[in-house]
């Protein structure tokens, strides 16, 4: 039987904590557990059986709610302070889901960092986040000790999973935390549901950016932001409890239980979506019949052609959501052939600091806007969603301390994209300079804007057109070239996988250089032919006519999270040494 929530640390066990737990993002999980306790919440692969079929483990909603209660109670029993930060380095699986929701319930702030950013950056992020608790699998705990992660702040280390030989490096195991929590609940010391009181504007998590255009920064998510995101995704895509979600990105997988979906974790390395084995995704699809799927453009690019080659259809899917980088019309068209109408692919626009900002479906892209992309007009990312306000302002690389209406450029002009709304994060943890550079205070309206770091424009139908990252624009003596607008023209060539425009300094001044990743390896004669055809394409448009230097690259360096964002800074260094 459920009893009122209480904060064990701050009040006697018999004193309820009003309704503060209603602000907690984990409340959605508890509500769903009451509505559908026996429905599977999370399903994860656990090897293969004797006949070769995948064996799965799962939590029902009731089990996930109870297990996260036990973890939350155990953390409280361990005197983990409310509001303190806990670094989480646990692979996607049952422990990961239960742990993160347990941290939410305990009022402890999980610090989530993509391990693919590299050991050096990962260590810097951990030091910057100042966690008092470190929760990780055995390799992470060993790496922490060897590399000194969080040496000055970590006071307790919790081992998740196997590795009893690590007892000397850990102060407790996650199983011990669970056991202590269950004992506290059984004895009545802690009542269920276990919710430490939190306020909507209190930190719920610190999520680090991918660092694709600079050092990774920790965006502070409040419980209110998470709640707003859930409601926005629910209404935007008409997601209903009881749906089945195939999620290839762990952070998005956390939304599924809160939305009442069953989250299927496929057999893949989530840090390498471009290397996913399509047959393993198809196997999970055949096993569970998902209605929803999230995947980066790199994953769709790999899975779509494989499915088409097999003549597959996925009739259960109602929608596919792809994010992290613009998805080319070619990729969308191929993957859309696997779907049954009216299902389509949606591409929400946003960033770690603000998601979603806008959204558009593949029907509109393939039927209209994709053709404009090929003409160099940018990528349409759709209309603002929810309560998001979007403005386009004059491009500046300097802080803008206070909002002024004079900053806004006319509709149709390219400028810097800024946004305001309930899903927008207010600050970075421990980075006041970065916060000052990324936020604009609107004192008169008691709000603020986040500078997306993107350039774009609004069309006459209120749609946002993305023209590239602000830091990637190529500034010449007589013009400024925006990457996405230029690359869209050249990407239309059938033998081009993708292109990247960079600026290279020469004695005569800065010149634009187009780096080309071909669909297949090209010999010298084919390179010269394709170069000539690309120059012909570029000569047809004013903004691409200046691009006369073209170099070929076998495989672009890309971000680890989505395998889609091109590291143009690295390409610029490479291109400066390269001769066409």
TrEMBL record:
The keyword Ligase applies. Its EC number is 6.2.1.3. Residues 32-429 form the AMP-dependent synthetase/ligase domain. The keyword Plastid does not apply. Pfam families: AMP-binding. PANTHER family: LONG-CHAIN-FATTY-ACID--COA LIGASE (PTHR43767), NONRIBOSOMAL PEPTIDE SYNTHASE PES1 (EUROFUNG)-RELATED (PTHR43767:SF1). This is Long-chain-fatty-acid--CoA ligase. It comes from Paludisphaera borealis.
């Amino acid at each position: 039987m459920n009893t009122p929530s209480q904060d064990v640390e701050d009040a006697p066990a018999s004193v309820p904590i009003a309704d503060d737990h209603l602000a907690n993002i984990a409340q959605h999980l508890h509500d769903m557990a009451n509505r559908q306790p026996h429905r599977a919440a999370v399903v994860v692969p656990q090897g293969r059986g004797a006949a070769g079929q995948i064996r799965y483990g799962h939590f029902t909603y009731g089990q996930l709610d109870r297990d996260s209660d036990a973890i939350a109670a155990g953390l409280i029993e361990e005197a983990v302070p409310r509001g303190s930060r806990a670094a989480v380095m646990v692979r996607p699986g049952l422990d990961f889901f239960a742990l993160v929701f347990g941290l939410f319930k305990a009022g402890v702030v999980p610090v989530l960092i993509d391990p693919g950013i590299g050991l050096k950056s990962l260590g810097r992020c951990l030091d910057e986040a100042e966690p008092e608790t470190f929760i990780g699998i055995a390799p992470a705990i060993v790496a922490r000790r060897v590399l000194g992660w969080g040496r000055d702040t970590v006071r307790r280390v919790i081992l998740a999973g196997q590795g009893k030989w690590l007892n000397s490096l850990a102060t407790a195991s996650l199983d011990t935390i669970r056991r202590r929590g269950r004992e506290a609940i059984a004895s009545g010391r802690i009542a269920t549901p276990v919710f430490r009181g939190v306020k909507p504007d209190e930190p719920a998590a610190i999520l680090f950016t991918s660092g694709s255009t600079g050092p990774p920064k920790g965006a502070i998510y409040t419980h209110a932001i998470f709640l707003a995101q859930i409601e926005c995704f629910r209404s935007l895509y008409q997601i209903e409890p009881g749906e089945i979600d195939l999620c290839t990105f762990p952070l998005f997988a956390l939304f599924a239980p809160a939305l009442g979906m069953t989250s299927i974790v496929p057999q893949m390395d989530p840090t390498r979506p471009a290397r996913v084995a399509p047959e393993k995704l198809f196997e999970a699809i055949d096993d569970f019949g998902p209605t929803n799927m999230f995947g980066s453009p790199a994953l769709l690019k790999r899975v779509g052609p494989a499915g088409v080659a097999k003549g597959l259809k996925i009739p259960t899917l109602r929608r596919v959501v792809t994010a992290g980088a613009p998805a080319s019309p070619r990729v969308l068209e191929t993957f859309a052939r696997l779907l049954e109408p009216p299902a389509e692919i949606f591409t929400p626009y946003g960033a770690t600091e603000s998601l979603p900002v806008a959204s558009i479906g593949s029907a509109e892209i393939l039927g209209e806007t994709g053709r404009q992309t090929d003409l160099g007009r940018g990528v349409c990312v759709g209309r603002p969603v929810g309560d998001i306000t979007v403005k386009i302002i004059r491009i500046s690389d300097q802080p803008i301390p206070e909002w002024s209406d004079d900053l806004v450029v006319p509709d149709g002009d390219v400028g810097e994209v800024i946004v305001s709304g309930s899903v927008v994060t207010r600050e970075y943890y421990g980075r006041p300079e970065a916060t000052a550079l990324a936020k604009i205070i609107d004192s008169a309206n008691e709000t603020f804007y986040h500078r997306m770091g993107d350039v774009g424009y609004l069309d006459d139908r209120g749609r946002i057109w993305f023209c590239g990252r602000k830091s990637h624009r190529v500034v010449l003596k007589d013009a400024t070239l925006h990457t996405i607008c230029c690359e869209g023209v050249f990407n239309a060539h059938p033998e081009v996988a993708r292109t990247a425009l960079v600026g290279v300094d020469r004695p005569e001044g800065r010149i634009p250089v187009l780096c080309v990743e071909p669909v297949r390896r090209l010999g010298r004669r084919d390179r010269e032919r394709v170069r000539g055809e690309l120059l012909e394409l570029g000569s047809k448009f004013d903004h691409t006519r200046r691009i006369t230097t073209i170099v070929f690259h076998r495989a672009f360096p890309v971000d680890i999270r989505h395998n889609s964002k091109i590291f143009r800074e690295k390409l610029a260094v490479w291109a400066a040494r390269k001769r066409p």
